[in-house]
Write a structure and sequence with these properties.
Elements (H helix, E strand, L loop, with lengths): L5 E6 L2 H13 L3 E6 L1 H10 L4 E4 L8 H10 L7 E6 L4 H9 L4 E4 L5 H15 L1
Parallel strand pairs: 1-2, 1-3, 3-4, 4-5
């Protein structure tokens, strides 16, 4: 990896956040995490990451609603948003794209190492 990317991982599952944070930091990423959408909003108002890795199924506000909100507030300009979810229906993938997501990874069909590879591929395609 030529550049040290800043990634913000948003999920409501502590175990998954910790696991992905560890894997991404071991791969040379500068990792921040947000346990849920409210914390993610706060962090996006402070320091904008290069990559936003976002779960869809979360209580209070799902990932799509969070994306709508950050888009309206202009908090993700220049950020490569990638959805990482267990919901893999085509309608979800399309909705993600409509909201500006550069990629969509289905958790159940990718190991953490494959998730990192896919994230890097998506980021390279965008730049």
């Amino acid at each position: 990896m030529d550049k040290r990317y800043k990634i913000l991982i948003v999920d409501d599952d502590n175990f998954l956040i910790d696991m992905y944070a560890l894997k991404f930091s071991q791969s040379g990423f500068d990792v921040e995490t947000a346990l849920g959408p409210d914390i993610a909003l706060e962090k996006l108002r402070g320091r904008v990451p290069d990559i936003l890795l976002l779960d869809i199924v979360m209580p209070q506000m799902d990932g799509f609603e969070l994306l709508e909100k950050v888009n309206k507030q202009g908090l993700t300009k220049g950020v490569c948003t990638i959805i990482l979810s267990n919901r893999g229906q085509q309608s979800d993938v399309e909705r993600g794209k409509e909201l500006g997501a550069a990629g969509y990874i289905v958790k159940a069909s990718a190991t953490p190492s494959e998730v990192i590879e896919q994230v890097l591929e998506i980021v390279k395609k965008r730049s």
